[in-house]
Amino acid sequence: MKKGFALLETIIVITFVTVSLLLLYGTFTSMIDNSRKNILYDDASNIYRMYYLKEYLELYDLQNYMDGVDIREITCEDFSTNSCSLLFDEFELEHLYLVKYGLKDYQESNYSSTFNQYLYSLSNESDYSYRLVGEFIIEDEYHYASIGVMKE
Predict the structure, then answer these.
(1) pTM surpassing 0.85?
(2) Same structural domain, 100 and 127
């Protein structure tokens, strides 16, 4: 009688420990995935770069490019200045986009899958109507950052 009770007790303990470990594994894998996203998305130094780019581009009338398009790539050819390309090179900026808020589920084949994943990770709630999104290539990895731009 005691041997049967010990076996049942052992099975219950093993089941409890297994379920606990599975729950911990699920929690830790989601934390690791989130930390990987945080490394590639919205790094503080890249947000500062985006702030300075926004200030620079507002000098050259960035508001004219908010023409109702969901996503617009901004290049140095849009501005009549030579220092733009130097600034893009200095900031390791590969692409610069003006993106309308509310495009969380936007899937366009013209853009990279990492760009679409970044858009998906962003919040749709804001006082801004557009955001300036920078695609940086740092050590052969795509990094993203964005900053809100008010439409006047």
Answers:
(1) no
(2) yes
